[in-house]
Amino acid sequence: MGLGDVEKVAADTGFSGVIWVDRDGEIEFAKAYGLANRTYRVPNTVDTRFGIASGSKGFTALAVLSLVRDGVLKLETTARSLLGKDLPLIADDVTVEHLLTHTSGIGDYLDEEVESDITEYVVGAVHELTTTEAFLPLLDGHPTKFRAGERFSYCNGGFVVLALLAERASGAGYHELVRERVLRPAGMTRTDFLRSDELPADAAVGYLPLDGVDRSNIFHLPVLATGDGGIHTTAADISAFWRAFFAGEIVDSVAEIVRPRRDVPEESMRYGLGFWLHETTDTVILVGYDAGASFKSTHDPRTGITRTVLSNTSPGAWPIARALAR
């Protein structure tokens, strides 16, 4: 399928977002579609910033792994050693590595094995969720699902716990850890944690259908993203990220991070340390899906090709991503 066919899919689906393809930073295709703000009829551009939901779990992983590199944490560090009396239902043997690989078995505040429609899930008091510590009541009270290391089960709460452990081990806030240890070395100058209730003019509002009307996602997501996702970024910054990551400019343990730790046949993928991996090739993948946001970016280190789709609707990215993959 050629890029002309991808454009046809975009037209047929009413795609809202950005499609970007480059090879080693040289743009082969970059185009924006739809509106960033439907109330004021503001169009998306290739420079628009989009929330990428779980796409930023990879950034959380790298912030944590940079602390491992510096000896502040270890993969074997137990969550309990830093949680103290908080979150008592997290088992004593759950480690940083278990959390990074979605094998911790801890109960999840947003369990995607249970929630069939992400747009129906609403977090209470989203305006209060401005810090990682503020998530503690949400994370608490969820029984263990299985013994640590037993199997893979995608866990949003596990990455909030990782952010919490990183904060307590380093003494620095999660947002600053990601800015200093991931965004800055990657040259991601237009990526940041934006409050949903004061989005700047260059950021897309996320939309989802509610009662037959498209409304913004402001009541569906935490007002400020934390470890399990939600940062805002651009297609160009994602491209810069992949190049910096594979050049070892963020952490030098790239081979270990992208080494397959678990097969995930139900997703037709594998998983490393905070990153999805193609089922059979070396391609590394970031994916995000939430109310009013969908995102997929793949990078093939052998060819240098990056394919990125960002959308400010829940389903928007998927038909485009499938077309690009073909």
From TrEMBL:
GO terms for molecular function: hydrolase activity. It is found in: Membrane. Its EC number is 3.1.1.103. Signal peptide: none annotated. This is Serine hydrolase domain-containing protein. PANTHER family: D-ALANYL-D-ALANINE-CARBOXYPEPTIDASE/ENDOPEPTIDASE AMPH (PTHR46825), PENICILLIN-BINDING PROTEIN 4 (PTHR46825:SF11). Its main location: membrane. Residues 12-317 form the Beta-lactamase-related domain. GO terms for cellular component: membrane. The keyword ATP-binding does not apply. Pfam families: Beta-lactamase. It is an enzyme of class 3 (hydrolase). Keywords: Hydrolase, Membrane.
